[in-house]
Amino acid sequence: MASKTLIPAVKGTREFYPEEMAQRNFIYEKARQASRLFGYQEWDAPFLETIELYAAKSGEELVKEQSFVFPDRGGDLITLRPELTPSLARMIAQKQNELVFPVRWWSFGPFWRYERPQRGRTREFFQWNVDMLGVNSPEADAELIAVAATFLKLVGLTPEQATIFVNNRRLMDAQFDALQISPEKRMEVSNAVDRRAKMEAAKWDEYVLELGLKREQLDGLKQILGNYDLWQQSEELIRLFNALEALGVKDYVRFDPNIMRGLLYYTGTVFEAFDVSGSVRRAILGGGRYDNLLRDVGGDPLSGVGFAMGDVVIGILLKEKGLIPAFIPSPAPVLVTVFDASLWMASYSLAAELRAEGWNVITYPEPAKLPKQFKFADRMGVKVALVLGPEEAASGKVTVKNLATATQESVARIEVSAAIRRMLATN
RNA sequence: GCGGCUGUAGCUCAAUGGCAGAGCACUUGACUGUGGAUCAAGGUGUUGUGGGUUCGAGCCCCAUCAGCCGCCCCA
Fold it and tell me: What is the ipTM of this complex?
């Protein structure tokens, strides 16, 4: 075999053979459908950006450790985009005076992060981003969560399988204040909260105490993190859940004080969706409200809320739950066989006529034994096979065979289209 | 960047330091105008790569590359 001489694909990339491509398109289509149901507009940003764009606001780790950065021929440092939000902020800021607000935009495209590939994580991935800018309210936050929940519903995930957990940064800050955890320590404590599910309870306690918290602060923190009624102390969250109920997606959403999210720029509502059955322990999607992003890139202050979903984790999940539609190899339901060399072009003409009528038609590319051609039709998932042999040619007919039922009929050439339509209808 | 596991036929895997194998898949035929099922026949490999130990290495040792799983971080 030639395997020795094959140049391998770049580490952490995925190759989309037609079956994987169909899966990716399934996810894309459902994301598109959910976005459009709420009236969001599709948009995109450059895949290449300068490193300065991310240096301004993204986390240091994301820029320094996890970005693909390389000099272009002029010596400028170019970055393969690791996230979309900074580009969004710039594009909004550039046209801040002409856009119709609120802006409701969605996007689905490739991103790159230089990470160690592992389950649910690749270096090249596709991400669905949905954002609303120009409205700062819990009701707007609820709409974004509803878009996410609608997606989960559209792909067939039930609330028992996938749940969106919600928290609020301001609420948690108030709680931390009450415990007299200093603002400088909030970040570290937040990170600790993020990691809590992955650590043993005793070890986590130890870890938090090492951060400099006192024993009673730790106890207080644990009390907060175990209080699932805490949302009732937040006017924002009360309004949020009220709106979620009206939007018909409350089943998918639960308050959870343990949801923090590492990203610096979230200021209010934060949320993350997880596979509740627990096979993939990574977030399916995550998002929240960001108040300062536009100002940080040099625009006028403008609040936004949004979320992102990578294609990798949701792909694993959908596959596991059997929610990816069966793969049909050929997009053509009709195969025209080629009986022999003398009738080859007659078959091609027949195929051309059917295409002119709007059918997707695949031909066998050369004369071959019929068993071989039928086997090919079968492997390609074709529903109907046409035979134009000497008998048919002599009588001006075409044999139309329904591969699912193994029945066939010989019909006049002008009747072929109707015969195909009948067979496809009964399948 | 750190830790662990695994690399054998196209795929999934087996082989006590002693002749490198099985199932599936594939090709052909049974069947010269009809697919899936069945049966028969057939091909298969520098055992990831490079060194070392040994009379002898798929197996042991070292290095290297790749993949997977976890840490970090996050979609």
Answer: 0.81
